[in-house]
């Protein structure tokens, strides 16, 4: 029998994993999300390690796998361990930084009316208890949160406790609904050749003109069409589609639709400008480092350039070199600097291969971007501090623009990390190259550059050519 060390989504778990036995019916990998019993509850967890022996004598079994494939890359497992230890944060808090958007699901406490709620004991209840029983009779079940919202937390808990003690309500728990999932829209297809469809439309035009119109429209499109668009263009309803399905002329199926935050923006590919001598010198050193093979450790460059000296162009050339070598990159920018112009600059140099991740995207957009990044659909990921946790495979280059900015620190919630420190550790674990860019470097970064821990690259002069920054 095998065992799994699991980081559990519970504040009680703190900075450790828990041992679970793996039942023969479940095939697990490190990084996979699982359901595990934890006290009286069943909670989410992530497998950190598979072992032959447990860390404790008695273990419970993993209840089931949440998904077939791992949600964490091997390097992210090690990074989560480091964040937990370095910042004294609960292990699952560190894990949560890297999980798919909308992954977290909590247990919801529900209350139901029992058969005894119809007895004479109801007459002795308080007005609040009667009110809650009446609501349960109408709705069937009510969440504890809804009761607390209606009565206040203290009063709600007292009322629920009394009703439970009297056997007038029962209590259960279930996981809250999935917050986000792939967007699937119905598409309608021709089930016959376009010519056959047009012939059938001629036969139907007299007795079923809407069916004929839909067939004509689909025959002209040749490609599958969103169902709503087809109904709108053919001026028909769902019953028309159903009638054609029954005749074997069309069929509908669900098609996953990507929620792309850049879908409605057009980026014209741009040619890189000629670099200055200082830019060429800086780029040469970064390129040389990218070409070196390293399994661990990281080379860190501090690109110290005055405002307008062309640091961004060095970033873009370095990313192009990484991509040419079969690697990928992450670019961190301060939240305030993540402007449409910044996105356009990277997206136009890497058409359809640049992803954007930030908190202002809808949950669905974040979910789809995360999934596509994990699948290797993008050469470059751009975003504020949280983008350092993007599941970018084959990571070869991490760029942190304006590395001195205080917004790279997360101070609002656990773990209270600094994205620059996390990026340096990620690079150490993955063997990536790091470029820290600034016109006013952080004093610590500048000290490391002066002492030789980082390599100092300088762009001392401002470029007046249009478009450089």
Task: Set out the fold topology.
Elements: E1 3-8, E2 18-21, E3 33-38, E4 41-51, E5 60-61, E6 64-65, H1 74-86, H2 91-96, E7 107-113, H3 127-139, E8 141-143, H4 144-151, H5 153-165, E9 169-175, E10 184-190, H6 194-204, H7 209-221, E11 225-226, H8 227-234, H9 238-246, E12 250-256, H10 277-291, E13 299-305, H11 311-324, E14 328-332, H12 340-349, E15 354-356, H13 363-374, E16 380-383, E17 395-401, H14 419-430, E18 433-438, H15 443-451, E19 455-459
Parallel strand pairs: 2-5, 13-18, 13-19, 14-16, 14-17, 15-16, 17-18
Antiparallel strand pairs: 1-2, 1-4, 3-4, 3-6, 7-8, 7-9, 10-11, 10-12
Give short descriptive properties of this protein:
single chain, seven-stranded parallel sheet, six-stranded mixed sheet, 469 residues, Arc Repressor Mutant, subunit A, alpha/beta, GIY-YIG endonuclease, 15 helices, 4 domains
Short description:
This protein has 469 residues and is α/β, with parallel strands linked by helices.
CATH topology of the largest domain: Rossmann fold
Largest sheet: 7 strands, parallel
What's the N-to-C terminus distance?
59 Å
Biggest sheet strand order reads 15-16-14-17-18-13-19
Relevant CATH superfamily of the largest domain: P-loop containing nucleotide triphosphate hydrolases
> Outline, from the CA principal axes?
globular
The overall average pLDDT, rounded, is 91
Query: Structural class given helices, strands, pairing?
Result: alpha/beta
Radius of gyration from the CA trace? 29 Å
Text of the CATH class of the largest domain: Alpha Beta
Helix content: 25-40%
Number of domains: 4
Strand content: 15-25%
Number of strands: 19
The parts where pLDDT drops under 50 for at least 5 residues are: none
**Number of contiguous helices:** 15
What is the CATH architecture term of the largest domain?
3-Layer(aba) Sandwich
């Amino acid at each position: 029998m095998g065992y799994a060390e699991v980081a559990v989504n519970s504040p009680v778990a703190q900075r450790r994993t828990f041992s679970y036995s793996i039942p023969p019916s479940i095939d697990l990998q490190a990084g996979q999300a699982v359901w595990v019993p934890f006290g009286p509850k069943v909670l989410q967890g992530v497998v950190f390690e598979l072992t032959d022996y447990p860390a404790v004598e008695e273990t419970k079994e993993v209840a089931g796998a949440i998904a077939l494939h791992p949600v964490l890359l091997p390097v992210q497992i090690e990074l989560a361990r480091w964040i937990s230890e370095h910042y004294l944060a609960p292990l699952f808090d560190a894990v949560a930084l890297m999980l798919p958007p909308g992954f977290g699901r909590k247990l919801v406490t529900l209350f139901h009316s029992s058969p005894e709620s119809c007895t004479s004991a109801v007459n002795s209840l308080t007005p609040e208890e009667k009110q809650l029983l009446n609501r349960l009779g109408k709705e069937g079940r009510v969440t504890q949160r809804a009761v607390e919202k209606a009565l206040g937390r203290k009063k709600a808990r007292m009322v629920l406790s009394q009703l439970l003690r009297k056997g007038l309500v029962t209590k259960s728990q279930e996981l809250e609904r999935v917050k986000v999932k792939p967007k699937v829209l119905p598409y309608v297809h021709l089930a016959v050749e376009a010519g056959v469809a047009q012939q059938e439309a001629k036969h139907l035009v007299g007795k079923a003109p809407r069916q004929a119109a839909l067939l004509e429209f689909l025959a002209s499109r040749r490609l599958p069409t969103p169902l709503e668009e087809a109904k709108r263009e053919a001026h028909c309803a769902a019953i028309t589609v159903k009638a054609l399905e029954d005749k074997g002329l069309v069929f509908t199926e669900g098609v996953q639709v990507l929620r792309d935050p850049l879908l409605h923006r057009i980026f014209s590919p741009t040619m890189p400008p000629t670099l200055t001598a200082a830019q060429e010198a800086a780029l040469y050193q970064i390129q040389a480092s990218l070409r070196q093979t390293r399994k661990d450790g990281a080379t860190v460059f501090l690109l110290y350039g005055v405002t307008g000296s062309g640091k961004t162009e060095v970033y873009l050339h370095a990313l192009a070199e990484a991509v040419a070598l079969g690697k990928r990159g992450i670019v961190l920018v301060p939240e305030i600097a993540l402007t449409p112009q910044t996105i356009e600059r990277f997206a136009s140099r890497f058409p359809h291969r640049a992803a954007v991740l930030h908190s202002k995207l809808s949950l669905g957009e974040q979910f789809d971007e995360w999934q596509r990044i994990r699948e290797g659909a993008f050469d470059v990921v751009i975003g504020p501090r949280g983008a350092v946790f993007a599941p970018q495979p084959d990571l070869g280059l991490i760029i942190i623009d304006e590395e001195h900015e205080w917004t790279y620190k997360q101070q609002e919630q656990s773990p209270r990390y600094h994205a620059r420190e996390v990026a340096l550790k990620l690079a150490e674990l993955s063997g990536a190259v790091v470029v820290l860019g600034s016109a006013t470097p952080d004093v610590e970064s500048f000290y490391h550059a002066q002492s030789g821990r980082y390599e100092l690259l300088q762009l001392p002069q401002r470029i007046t050519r249009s478009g450089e920054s």
